[in-house]
Specification:
Chain B: GO terms for molecular function: heme binding; heme transmembrane transporter activity; lyase activity. The structure holds two protein chains of two kinds. Chain A is of the alpha+beta class. Chain A has three helices and eight strands. The relative contact order of chain A is 0.15. In chain B, the strands form two sheets. In chain B, strands 3, 4, 5, 6, 7 and 8 form a six-stranded antiparallel sheet that branches. In chain B, strands 2-11-10-9 form a four-stranded antiparallel sheet. Chain B has four domains: 165 residues, no CATH class; 230 residues, no CATH class; 110 residues, no CATH class; 102 residues. Helices cover 64% and strands 12% of the residues of chain B. The chains are: A alpha+beta, B alpha+beta. Chains A and B meet through helix 1, strand 1, helix 3 and strand 8 of A and helix 12, strand 1, helix 13, strand 2 and strand 8 of B. Strand 1 of chain A pairs antiparallel with strand 1 of chain B.
Chain lengths: 168, 657
Amino acid sequence: MSWLPKSRKARRRLTLIAAIAPVLAIAVGLTLWGLRDSISFFYTPSQADAAQPPAGRSIQLGGLVAPGSVIKHSDGRVEFTVQDQKAADKVVFQGDLPDLFREGQGIVAVGSFRDDGVFHAKQVLAKHDERYMPREVQDALKEQGEWYGEGAKPHEAAPATRTDASAT
Amino acid sequence: MITEIGAFALLLALAFSLAQLVLSAAGRIRRSTVLAAAGEGAALAAFIGNLLAFAALMHAFITSDFSVSNVANNSHSEKPLLYRIAGTWGSHEGSMLLWCLALTGFGAAAAILGRTLPRGLKAVMVATQGGLGVVFLAYTVFASNPFARLTAVPVEGRSLNPLLQDPALAVHPPFLYAGYVGMSVVFSLAVAALVEGRVDAAWARWVRPWTLAAWAALTVGITLGSFWAYYELGWGGWWFWDPVENASFMPWLIGAALLHSAIVTEKRGALSGWTVFLALAAFSFSMLGAFLVRSGVLTSVHAFAVDPTRGVLLLIILGVTAGLGFALFAWRAPTLSQGGLFAPISRESALVLNNILLAAATATVLLGTLFPLIREAATGEAISVGPPYFNLTFTPLMAALLILVPAGPLLAWKRGDAAGVAQRLWIAALIAIGCGLLAFALVSPRKAFGAAGLALGFWLITGSLAELVERTRAFRAPAAETWRRLTGLPRGAWGMTLAHIGLGIFVLGACFETGWKQEAAETLPIGGSLDVGAYHLVLETIGGVEGPNYEAERGIIRATRDGAPVCTATPERRFYPAGSQTTSEVYICYQGLSHLYIVLGERRDTGPQPVWLVRAYWNPWASLLFFGPGVMALGGLVSLSDRRLRLGVARRKVQAA
């Protein structure tokens, strides 16, 4: 094979590149593909109104649980409204809610909008620590001027609770 | 009083670390053994100071001294002793103190055990370790002092988060930190090698035991954390590709790559630049992990104490330390020797491929973890990258690596024989494929991907055993000969075989659990039932239970299979008044290797009679998920006890030479 370089060093470098290139190409390809398809956007209800995510697309919906909106059914279903200052969305969730899920509390619901505009949550995230507010919710509320600062400095270890809806 | 002594000891440790840095550096520059020895003494003194500080904090936790702010925020007098002790590292401040304790401990150990190192190399290593100690101790003393007092002393503490009051999690941080911070010795060795301009077989032989120890500790730490998340959080899963999990997984992957590349550097003198690079990267990833976990820049489901101002400081520490290391690398690496040549098919090439795949897998995990930050900085949109991304990118790269694992050890150095390797492995491959086909045929529902994954797991095990058979000439030579060879195998070879088999066991568990797990959730009144997999669960009664620092509702759930009783599960839902928190105490019925995993959820009183949300998971072969990594860590320990790596042997060799 006369087109191969003559020096052994250069040949070795060529072999190394030949080994790295396909792995790198596959890794980059998979990464781009993965990042296109498996990221989920975070919206507050008013941002969701503006962005109009297609029904069935997995997103995260964050905001405050509207006071008086929580209805717990005995078949395990929970309905509540997530709101920011301008808009509100109805959320349906089947499963075990985090313990600090309360009216007025900031939460993030992971799931998708159905065709009828109701948000179908597969997970509801809220941290166990009552001083905790999910960061995205905090940022979004700050932008809307609805943020009054934290009651206390969060300095405790505070793992979250997460609940998965199992039967949907 | 003891608290003040602790605070003072911590300051002393900082001062001694500074002395360690200055004395050792001066010892290297002036080539003075006296100064270098003084530096080593300072390293030991820094460790003792830190140990005293740690003991003082632990004392404050055990005696529930709520005048210490950290204790008041994270402990409670009614907490059992184990969790009062574990509370020492349950908070941000305490865990940083543990980090510093590990750092100075490793520094002292390296200074004492490294007697065989060349003087210059050792002085630079001790100085670098001292520098790291100064940075992290200064951070602990000035930005997160665990000994800060409260002027108004509360009567009772706010308690450690009940989710963290668990035996696995009590010992998880010490292992994890031993792993994270163990990489600092490797980092310091790499810096020393770059300063001295010498990376040779002897250097790689010093790098390997430290990497092995850190990697094995990290394996245990991650597994304990995963096991804790599995049974304590009650989500039925064991890995969520959460930023906090990824933060500990990336140094593990880089450590695994380093373990393999250091072999090439040790045996063949090749890849020296790459090995040094990995050595720098391993600790940099540890520091990145510390930053990600503590700063709160990424939304995590296992969020730890978050504080943005501390995050900035940690980012500066990370940037400066890793930046200096890599700048030194860029400056000095071109001077390192290239080492021996090797053919495209050889053990060296197999190990290079292992490193390429591990590095690429780490890069995809890093990108997936940091992408939300990058995206938000660029476009202002908040997004999250979920498990599908990692399954899509990480899994294929790892699968490619796992296929190659059994072939590597059978290839000869320099120039290998692919046909010969195929000849030695075909039986193992056939058995593995047969097991995969059997799984495809027998396990319902049929899943091709799951069965392929199982075949891969079996392949790792049979392939590793084939290599053992090959080495001992089993079935070909007389039994006595095989026995002689088996007992004569170096511990390093046993370690490798164990680690690869452990990986196979883990892959089996991961594929079976992921592919065939089943779940069910329903609201049940007393006497209600639900089915999961082949099991029928009946909620018999719900009763109240009084714990040491909690009250609980305990469900009695009878599980039957085809009418035959299997077990009586007693999952609990606990309420901790100290932090007014509720947690679920999962009940796991162990069925051989598989788990029937039962969670008692919240009570709903809206209907005619009270109902409870009960979730149940059937997790087949889930025990292997935690047993496999245990075998891997054991492999690391066995390998660590190899004669070749024992430092005394190296010294005798040096003296003989």
